[in-house]
Amino acid sequence: MISNRLKSSLRSEFRQSLMAKLGVAILIVILLMGIFAPVLATHNPTTQGYTDQKGSSYPPVGMSYDTTVAEDGERVSHTVYGTSDHILGTNNLGQDIYSRFLYGARTSLLVGVSGSLLAALIGVPIGLTAGYFGGRVDDGLMRIADVMLAFPALVLALALMGSLGRGTIGIPDPIVMAGFADGMPEQMTFPGMVAVVVALVTWVWFARVARGEAIAIRNEAYVKAARSVGASNRTILLRHVLPNSLTPIIVLGTIQVAAIIILESALSFLGFSGTTLSWGFEIQNGQDRLRTQWWVATVPGIGIVLSVVGINLLGDWLRDALDPNIEGEGGGGAG
């Protein structure tokens, strides 16, 4: 349960922080776009062939670009104008960018949240165990963490993806199955192996934070009192150490969602995701056409930036509200 004091702190910091309000607003918009993508999308994101009569991709509505097309065996100039049917244009395959942007938000948010949760489930128990017991247990577990930290996250993720493969999970779309979005994909391809890999890459950060908290808590009076009445180490860890370590873990988990979104986009960009409905894949698809069809890579790039900024602002708000020793942007720490 969330205490009344914590609720008051969260409300107070939120009222005083413009950045917190901006971050929450950004995340709400992106979250709603991802959840209701089948309803908000104007076209099936996998359908190809949305081009003009000469086979050229549409630019965003209100814009145009010049290209050349084959006509009577010769290359002739051709101007392509945007259309209201495709407000953000189409890619080189004639797929609607707006619809793919909405579905890409689903992939990024799901991988970010699930990857962060999996990393916490791996790293927090390891960190708490190392910090609470200390000695050889601490040395052994933290040396494993140090080895993981010795490799750049992307390099380690690529190595793991190469070894484990591109496992995907087909998740039925409840909105489509309920009949609210006819013509949209009935299943969402969730890159489950990507979520597992990013968790295996990022668990060490949770372990280090949890270890630091356990070291600070293990000699507290209430822990000693529990130990003196015969409480087992497992009981002490679950009832005393873990609950009092949650604040920095929650803040880290929020921020790690942003880091994992970037990592997932990088893996998708390099072709390791297993799904084409990803912001990273769309950037890769448009990288060779930045001069003529800049919107193909720019639109998903903006989505990544906004998601990361929104999540980081949310993490800053939680940090300032949950940690009374830090003065927040809104001045919440001032007496």
Secondary-structure map with pairings?
Blueprint: H1 4-16, H2 18-35, H3 37-40, E1 64-71, E2 74-81, H4 97-133, H5 135-149, H6 153-164, E3 169-172, H7 174-177, E4 187-190, H8 192-217, H9 221-228, H10 233-241, H11 246-269, H12 279-286, H13 295-322
Explain this structure.
With 335 residues, the chain is mainly alpha-helical. It has 2 domains: 17-50 and 88-322, MetI-like (MetI-like fold), CATH 1.10.3720.10; 59-84, no CATH class. The protein has helices at 4-16, 18-35, 37-40, 97-133, 135-149, 153-164, 174-177, 192-217, 221-228, 233-241, 246-269, 279-286, 295-322; strands at residues 64-71, 74-81, 169-172, 187-190. The strands form 2 sheets. The protein has a two-stranded antiparallel ribbon. A two-stranded antiparallel ribbon has the order 3-4. Strand 1 (64-71) and strand 2 form a beta hairpin. Helix 4 (97-133) packs antiparallel against helix 5 and helix 11 packs parallel to helix 12 (279-286). The two termini are 27 Å apart.
Number of strands: 4
User: How do the strands of the widest beta sheet line up side by side?
Assistant: 1-2
> What summary fits the major beta sheet?
2 strands, antiparallel
Count of structural domains: 2
Determine the oligomeric state from the structure.
Answer: single chain
Tags for this entry?
335 residues, mainly alpha, MetI-like fold, 2 domains, two-stranded antiparallel ribbon, 13 helices, 61% helix, disordered C terminus
